[in-house]
Design a protein that fits this description.
With 328 residues, the protein is mainly alpha-helical. It is built from 17 helices and no strands. Helix 4 crosses helix 5, helix 5 packs antiparallel against helix 9 and helix 10 packs antiparallel against helix 15. The two termini are 16 Å apart.
Length: 328
């Protein structure tokens, strides 16, 4: 636990809203109950008790359940953003869908499947038509990016390119707040993401050295990326990763080969949930908003897991294994 998170009266209104909303968070037992349901009608009854209750209508298309949960999270994040003295705590969570939409824009598509956050539809459409004037700074900082080179660089590497830009953007946002808890959360999230990106590349037999030009620069993580991309064998990575993320990585290396990366992702997410929970004890401040949205995001992820898992007849024991730690 962080020793002291000061209260900031200007955050009193939004923090008061959160105090009322937190009572509706769901415990692990709720999700375990969904996993045991066999009939969709019974699942629907359980969902009426959740934040998703207002989003479920008689015409709900179950194939779109993930999109419905994403919209529920987005609406909550936008609402918290508008009530907060600073947009940064909410922006940190809205950023991911922006970068997923940005991938479409770079491919020249003007259809954006994810709810808009920081980047408006107008800006994304302009990018889709080759106007890069409104690109976020973290995108243009990537190695190899330059005027007239964009379409030449992106094919085949766009995912890695945008991963690097997204992580730079996250780091930049966190540095805009004087919050040790939020910075710790974001730093550990970035480190875990770097490990996952490079680990997947190794599993696919890709030489990770080439990833430097798309992931760098990345502040204090530059040396970690440089070292990890110079070691193609993950068994030698723990000492470079270091800290709690390094310990979680070592635990995951003990799993069956096919479960290692997913096991690490789950452990890293649970670690971040534990960090964010400290914000619950703040009466009013940015940590309170950040903590709530962190818990809300995990709740939506767990709902997507158990509902789509049951709809697709995924084995119950597998769903239980993949369930993330809850906010309450």
């Amino acid at each position: 636990m962080f020793p002291k998170i000061p209260n900031i009266p200007q955050w009193g209104f939004v923090s008061g809203r959160i105090s009322a909303l937190e009572d509706h968070f769901l415990p692990r037992e709720f999700f375990m109950g969904i996993i045991t349901q066999e009939r969709i009608d019974d699942i629907v009854l359980h969902l009426q008790e959740t934040f998703l209750g207002d989003y479920l209508t008689p015409g709900t298309v179950w194939e779109d359940f993930s999109a419905l949960a994403d919209r529920c999270f987005h609406d909550m994040a936008i609402s918290m953003r508008s009530d907060s003295p600073s947009t940064i705590p909410a922006d940190i969570f809205l950023l991911q869908s922006d970068y997923l939409n940005l991938k479409n824009a770079f491919s020249g598509t003007t259809t954006f499947p994810f709810p808009m956050g920081i980047l408006s539809h107008e800006k994304l459409s302009a990018i889709a038509h080759g106007d890069f004037a409104d690109l976020p700074g973290p995108v243009t900082e990537a190695g190899g990016f330059g005027e007239g080179e964009a379409y030449e660089v992106f094919p085949g590497v766009i995912d890695t390119f945008l991963d690097g830009a997204y992580l730079r953007h996250l780091l930049s946002l966190a540095q805009g707040l004087e919050s040790e808890m939020i910075r710790t959360y974001v730093n550990d999230k970035i480190l875990a993401s770097i490990v996952i990106i490079l680990w997947r590349a190794v599993k696919q037999g890709i030489q990770t050295k080439r990833y430097q030009q798309y992931l760098l620069p990345l502040g204090d993580f530059t040396s970690v990326i440089t070292e990890l991309t110079g070691i193609q064998n993950p068994e030698a990575w723990q000492a470079v990763i270091g800290g709690e993320i390094g310990e979680l990585f070592a635990e995951s290396m003990e799993l069956e080969m096919d479960d290692q990366i997913s096991g690490f992702e789950l452990r890293a997410t649970n670690h971040l949930v534990r960090i964010a929970r400290d914000g619950k004890f703040q009466t009013a401040g940015p940590e309170r908003v950040f903590s709530f949205l962190s818990g809300f995001l995990v709740e939506m992820q767990n709902l997507k897991l158990v509902v789509t898992g049951r709809l697709n007849r995924i084995d119950q024991s597998l769903l239980k294994q993949r369930l993330k730690d809850c906010y309450v």
